[in-house]
Queue: 2 jobs
Job 1
Amino acid sequence: MRKKLVAAAKDQQGEIMLEATMIFVPVLLLLFALLSLSFLFYQEAMMTSVANEVASDVARNYKFTDMEIGEDTITLDDVTKVAMFRTTFGKKDVEQKQAERAEAYAPWRVGLSSLGLNPGELKVDCNITGSGIGRTYVQVTVSQQSDFFLSGILDMLGITENGQMFSSTAYAECVDLMGYTSLVNFTAYGSKQLEAFQAIGNLYSSVKDFIQVLRK
């Protein structure tokens, strides 16, 4: 009788171990999947943060084209180098320099906080548009394809693909008071010149009419 009880106890222990193994493996897989999702969400949040920082940096220093990357201190030399009428005549040059700053700033910023594995090329698209009344709008899109810790589990579950593409777009606005002043001054100058041309045209018409009257 005792031998039968011992044998039954051993059988139950084996069943418990088998059942525990059957439960432990899916639970462990689920925990790893949740951990992998946390890295996925972190990478997405990190890219969003980088896009916002790049857009804010470009908008904040839009008129200071010679400032270093990530520099916040504006010196007198930076101010004196700000060109007048830049939004009228040098807009393309200013936009090109700011786009270059964005392309240089983003990789440096991503390198500080990215947990991506085997990262691909970081692409930065910076578009700057003006409203015509002194406001400048900045749109920055940052994208990079990379793996992350335990990403293979999400690939296996069909949640992600091999080499997840992370992309984020951010917007910022800056008010360029000097650009607005230049625009107003240029418009006023053009209006005065137009008034002068109109006055000359009116005078010519009056003289022409007077001559025609004398001929009659």
Job 2
Amino acid sequence: MSILSKLQNQPIYGLLRLRDKYWYLSAIMSFFCYDYVRGKKVDFMPVTPDKFYLDSGGGNWYSLYSSLDLNKLSFPL
């Protein structure tokens, strides 16, 4: 498998974590196109939006993931 080939069609790729209406990539397996993250805050600290605990990697919800359509992305099984 080639991570670069996965990033040709989407700006992020990795292990999906779902928490109610929130989703994010696990910090242990997350890949990003540089052009997508350039100038954005990248934060792998846990956060708790609306009382939903998002562990390491969840801090990227606001800056990286919230503007993406989850249904248009692919993730490893």
